[in-house]
Specification:
alpha+beta; Lipocalin; 41% strand; 195 residues; 19% helix
């Protein structure tokens, strides 16, 4: 019975009149919604992604003495040797002073506390091998030292880029270099703890 009532309504003149009114309203909306001469708006696409340039409040104060070890090679494409620093006595120390997000200080490599692993048989290891044999102590000022949240970055006087992360009283990270002539260092194993 309901089906018959619905069919009667659909084919009635009231329904046809109702549908005409809906179509007229839709046409009015379309006509009034588009202004003459207006062009569709193009989405705004940025030229290139923006780099985050602000620093975040430091997670901790780095001020103090740190000691640890480093394992590195020179930054040649095919390094001849790997230099393995010991933890005891430490092969790497840092004396840091933090002021806000800025960090200054000295990083010292104690080459007497390294072992040399030959990677390419019979090839000379170069300058770093000589420093290990002499037991040299190599201090370097920390340049552009910044701590942002738990990330500490700086450049040493040899233009090596240090990127360390802080967890409680531990610093771990990497060193990269683009210094030509194999005079820079590359490391994925830098570890220090607060003394």
């Amino acid at each position: 019975m309901r089906l018959n009532t619905l069919n009667n309504f659909i084919y009635s003149s009231r329904f046809v009149c109702f549908m005409k009114k809906i179509l007229v309203c839709m046409l009015l909306v379309l006509i009034l919604g588009c202004k003459p001469g207006s062009e569709p708006q193009q989405p705004i696409v940025p030229d290139e992604p923006q780099q985050l340039t602000t620093t975040i409040t430091p997670a901790r104060d780095l001020t103090g003495n740190w000691e640890g070890s480093i394992i590195f090679t020179n930054n040649c494409p095919n390094p001849a040797c790997r230099y393995k620093g010991r933890m005891i006595p430490p092969s790497l120390t840092m004396n840091l002073v933090q002021n806000g997000n800025q960090v200054a200080g000295v990083v010292t490599v104690n080459f007497a506390n390294f072992e040399i692993e030959e990677l390419v048989s019979g090839q000379d290891c170069g300058t770093f091998e000589e420093l290990v044999r002499q037991g040299a102590v190599s201090p370097s000022q920390i340049n552009k030292g910044v701590i942002s949240s738990s990330r500490f970055t700086f450049t040493d006087v040899g233009d090596n880029n240090w990127d360390l992360s802080l967890t409680t009283d531990l610093l771990r990270g990497t060193i990269t270099s683009s210094v030509p002539g194999c005079m820079g260092i590359t490391s994925t194993e830098v570890r220090l703890s607060r003394r």
